[in-house]
Amino acid sequence: MSSRNSPISQPITIRRAVARDAKRLTRLVRGSGAYAGKYAAAVAGYRVGPDYIEAHRAFVAVGADEHGGRVLGFYSLVLAPPELDLLFVDDEAQGRGIGRLLVAHMQSEARAAGLDRVKVVSHLPAEDFYHRAGAVRIGTALANPPAVPWDRPEFEFRVSSE
């Protein structure tokens, strides 16, 4: 069975991102297969710096391995206005439930911060993922050339108070 389709087989920990994660997170964004081809320019110079990590609620999913933990994905939650700013899962780790774990963690963080909704402007190839993860389509973010030359779907996660 390929790792892309197998369930999570190793312990996964979600922890707050720290400044030393910045280079790994930047590599994850720039190396994302979802941004290949016509989308590559959108992340070519993208940088997740220590300043970004310190300013936002950024969390990483780490898998246990012989090197003390491999970053499998991450997200960033902005509180005002409430938005899921970034969510990436390593290409080799996709299809194993890590994205869903990150979304569930984000919703828990949003709930703890008193939020009832979190918006996300989706990358087109991620649209189906957000639907499956429970987000509701609320509109379209219009293209903003030259940075983003295509329209993008807007979603909203509704956060229950539990």
Characterise the protein shown here.
Keywords: Acyltransferase, Transferase. InterPro entries: Acetyltransferase_Butenolide (IPR053144), Acyl_CoA_acyltransferase (IPR016181), GNAT_dom (IPR000182). It holds the Pfam family Acetyltransf_1. 22% of the residues lie in helices and 28% in strands. With 162 residues, it is α+β, with helices and mostly antiparallel strands. The strands form 2 sheets. Strands 1-2-3-4 form a 4-stranded antiparallel sheet, sandwiched between helices. A hairpin with a 4-residue loop joins strand 3 and strand 4. The protein starts with 11 loop residues before the first strand and ends with a strand. The N terminus is likely disordered.
- Please give the largest β-sheet: 4 strands, antiparallel
Strand runs, count: 7
Helix content range of the residues, please? Answer: 10-25%
H/I helix tally: 4
The SSE string, one letter per element, is EHHEEEHEHEE
- Give Rg in angstroms: 15 Å
**pLDDT averaged over residues:** 90
State the separation between the terminal residues, measured CA to CA.
Answer: 37 Å
Spatial strand sequence of the major β-sheet: 1-2-3-4
User: What sort of overall outline do the alpha carbons produce when their principal axes are compared?
Assistant: globular
Helical/strand content category: alpha+beta
Detail the poorly predicted runs.
Answer: 1-6
Beta-strand fraction estimate: 25-35%
GO molecular function: acyltransferase activity
InterPro entries: Acetyltransferase_Butenolide, Acyl_CoA_acyltransferase, GNAT_dom
Protein name: GNAT family N-acetyltransferase
Domain N-acetyltransferase: 12-155
